[in-house]
Design brief:
Length: 172
């Protein structure tokens, strides 16, 4: 529990310093508003066992990215009755496979106090730990947006589109 609270404080302070939240809209039932922390979207060198696509050469960019999503519970949401106001989750995402793994979650109350925190105890991940993000679902929208964000960031970090193609698409 102590480790989870320490992680919660670290995640909260990291997320609090980010100011580039992108509004992804509301869920179909209009009870949750979703945001992506654009600044948190980064490539991750994590090892995931269980498939040929997990193994990359040293030249290739990492397969996985991480992103932090915030879910704000709107008034009619039953979680509001428990005193929950919003939560933040760190996801590991494979844009190639359209799947994700939730690494950690923190739930905040109305005064920004931590109500619950959780971190996956898994030190080693396998492809079976990841969930498929079906299109036109909350998870599908989150994965699609985070994958779009990493492409935009990588294009922005290059001098030209041709350089981007050379650096990230072609093997040369």
């Amino acid at each position: 529990m102590k480790r989870a609270l320490i992680f919660g404080v670290i995640l909260a302070s990291t997320a609090a310093s980010s100011v580039d939240w992108v509004d992804l809209g509301k869920t179909a039932d209009k009870e949750v508003q979703i945001f992506l922390d654009y600044d948190s979207v980064k490539r991750q060198n994590i090892t995931v066992y269980g498939g040929a696509s997990s193994f990359r050469s040293a030249k290739e960019k990492p397969k996985y990215i991480s992103a932090i999503f915030q879910s704000t519970y709107i008034n009619r949401n039953p979680l509001r009755k428990k005193g929950f106001y919003y939560s933040k989750e760190q996801w590991f995402i494979s844009c190639e496979d359209q799947n994700y793994f939730v690494k950690a979650r923190i739930v905040y109350g109305f005064k920004d106090e931590v109500m619950e925190s959780w971190q996956s105890p898994k030190g080693t991940l396998s492809e079976s730990d990841f969930s498929y993000a079906f299109p036109e679902t909350l998870a599908g929208n989150n994965v699609e947006t985070a994958c779009g964000a990493i492409v935009l960031k990588e294009i922005d970090s290059t001098e030209s589109y041709e350089e981007y193609l050379q650096k990230y698409i072609y093997d040369e």
